[in-house]
Write a structure and sequence with these properties.
This protein is mostly helical. The chain has helices spanning 3-24, 29-65, 67-76, 116-141, and strands at residues 152-154, 157-159.
């Protein structure tokens, strides 16, 4: 078996590992797409929270400085100004306290992927299977034999292979 077949087995194993890693591994395109979708959702949520923050900052500064806004909030809390008369009406629902919108809760979702260990095992398996198939093919074709070498006979005279020094 020549070196090309060994290299081909290594190539098949490496190619299988790379394909598995790119399609289903930890750094695959599918996982990258999922993470980009999560990033997009987070950026929209961050923008929404920044808008809420700016609204609350405006409201806070108005409560500190604007007397009309302070009076409106005081009336909302059932306070009265000097000279105002309070009339209590029964049978109506109490005023609801308005809660501020703080945005919606987003949780990180883990991506499904095959670990690098299994990608490497699959690549090694395919490389070894390619090697075994080529090895068995060479044995079947007679390129590799494990028995005794038969001696050559030329017209009844045995020919021996002796290494030259």
């Amino acid at each position: 078996m020549n070196r090309t077949k060994y290299l081909f087995s290594v190539l098949v194993g490496t190619l299988t590992y790379v394909l598995f890693s790119l399609t289903a591994g930890q750094n695959s395109f599918r996982v990258l797409k999922n993470l980009e979708e999560q990033k997009q959702l987070l950026s929209v949520q961050v923008e929404e929270i920044q808008n809420i923050n700016s609204e609350l900052s405006l409201e806070y500064s108005a409560l500190l400085n604007d007397k009309d806004v302070i009076a409106a909030y005081a009336r909302k809390l059932d306070y009265v100004n000097d000279g105002e008369k309070l009339v209590k009406v029964t049978g109506l629902k109490p005023a609801e306290n308005s809660l501020y919108n703080t945005g919606k809760l987003l949780r990180h979702t883990d991506c499904d992927y095959i670990s690098e260990k299994y990608c490497k095992i699959v690549g090694l398996f395919f490389g070894l299977m390619t090697f075994v198939i080529m090895f068995l093919y060479d044995i079947n074709r007679g390129n590799i034999s494990f028995g005794k070498k038969e001696s050559l006979h030329v017209a009844g005279i045995p020919v021996y292979e002796v290494k030259q020094i």
